[in-house]
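Allow me, if you will, to draw on your knowledge of protein folds for a short while. The matter concerns a single protein, recorded as an amino acid sequence and a row of backbone structure tokens. Could you please explain, in whatever detail you think fit, how the structure tokens follow from the sequence? I remain grateful for any guidance, and I place the record below:

…
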Amino acid sequence: MKRLAAVLAAVHVLAVTGAPVAQPTQKLVFALNWFAVGDHAAYWVALDKGYYKSRGLDVELQNSKGSGDSIAKVDTNRADVGLADAVVVIPRVAQGARIKIVGAVFDNTPLNIWTRKDTGITRPKDLEGKILAAPPGDSQRQLFPAFAKVNGVDASKVTWLSIEPAAKFVALAEKRADAVPDYTTGQPFWEKAVGKDNLVAMPWHKYGFDTYSMSIFTSDKTLAERPKVLRDFLAASYLGWRDVMADPKAALEIFKKRVPDIDLALIEPNMLLGLELMRTERYAKNGIGWMDRGKMCGTVEFINTYMPDMPRKVGCDEVFTNDFLTKVEPPKK
């Protein structure tokens, strides 16, 4: 009886504290959207602190060549979960991809185009007749037709140069391209490549494109067959983001230890710019990663309206769910 009582007491403690219970290890492949940048620090922190392991997860982080690449991996079951821009997920769903967004990363959008002062580009219309460079799977390259339509730009007058992800900075610096789409969080890399005084930003939110952006998504297969694994993965990942927000310096130390090749002089400001997109009232109230239905449905309607060649209109509930989120509050200011 004493032994039984002790076991029951232990179970009660676990139930009250929410401490993870030992369980068989579950392999999970997480397709990042890019090579290692500050936007990914939280997942390395979660790995290093054992947030995944304590939930029985063996998580593998894989680099990708843009949102199109990470989506293809998840949709074909080469990865279980991925990072992608929400506004790329939506048209992929219309095209038949069996995927759904299960958590946001940035609550505000970092979509942007970088150019040089010497190009004379100061507004979207100036992109006509110019060369833009990006990988074919790049989220903003795929979204550009919608951005162009909103701003009266003739997309047929824009030439695209296909490059590898790491060649973005070189393409603009060596004047092989007049402009390159990339997140505002990449500013430190662009200042180094082009020069701070010669760099010009074109944030999309200033030109009618304020939508959800970087998000965590998964396949219908994972949603149906591994709901607990997904819930545990999201909880651990957002705990990683909580720790990054609470102590960026400590997070950078972990990131450097896990990915020695990163340049902290660039990654630190890159990561801090991303954190500013997450310090919102929505996250403070509802937890990191929570998605506002009104904003998400507005994002879906925006893509339905302005993205050309959509095979069908997508319903809001096809695209996202908050059902697998565990509330992880951001650190208090």
